[in-house]
Design brief:
This protein has helices at 13-21, 35-40, 47-63, 91-101, 137-147, 175-179, 183-192; strands at residues 6-8, 27-28, 70-80, 83-85, 105-116, 119-132, 168-172. With 198 residues, the protein is of the alpha/beta class. The chain has one domain (6-192): Maf protein. The radius of gyration is 17 Å and the shape is globular.
């Protein structure tokens, strides 16, 4: 039996890098959807439920044009002190986020989903807890001078594989979840779906 084509519904460089490193064959196509509109209908949902719902929605956005493919959607969201944070809207907004995160624990919820046609075949969410060290205003300015605009495309204003690692004193959780996708669970699901060898 031929394995289905895998499409990654994302333009995220870190998610592509994870799949590339694992030698997964896929095609990357960005999903166009209004994430805020979807979130508006999830007022009572928990952060992992929201991340999963957005992952499913991203994958589902591509299935009409690719009905025979297995589409992988993924999403991450950040919660600090019970407050949700989206991607920063500007460099100044990123600085505000970082000042708020300083000295607190950042919860990073990363989820993924596999959708084929009208059916969600699988979804999963995971959480990592990152302790943000106390950040001086001088560090925040220096950091953004180095990392902007790249971190403008990330929730949490960091790339852990780059200078973002300097934001944290300790990290609890899976490294792939921190990178933005629970890869080990994704790989297991891809084996179950016949995309990868068992």
């Amino acid at each position: 039996m031929n394995s289905p084509e895998l499409i990654l519904a994302s333009k995220s460089a870190s998610r592509r890098s994870m799949l590339d490193a694992a030698r997964v064959q896929y095609r990357a196509l960005p999903a166009e959807l209004d994430e805020r509109a979807i979130e508006a209908g999830l007022q009572d949902a928990t952060p992992p439920e929201i991340a999963e719902a957005l992952s499913v929605a991203k994958a589902a956005a591509l299935t009409a044009e690719h009905p025979d493919a297995l589409v992988l959607g993924s999403d991450s969201l950040v919660v600090v002190d019970g407050k949700r944070f989206d991607k920063p809207t500007s460099r100044e907004n990123a600085a505000e986020h970082l000042r708020f995160f300083s000295g607190k624990t950042l919860e990073l919820h990363s989820a993924a989903a596999l959708v084929r046609g009208d059916t969600c075949e699988w979804s999963h969410a995971d959480c990592a807890r990152l302790s943000v060290r106390i950040l001086s205003d001088e560090f925040i300015e220096h950091y953004l001078a180095q990392e902007w605009p790249e971190v403008g495309y990330t929730v949490g204003c960091f790339r852990i594989e780059a200078m973002g690692v300097q934001l944290f004193g300790s990290i609890e959780g899976d490294q792939f979840t921190v990178l933005g996708m629970p890869l080990l669970a994704v790989l297991e699901a891809l084996r179950d779906q016949g995309v990868l060898l068992s």
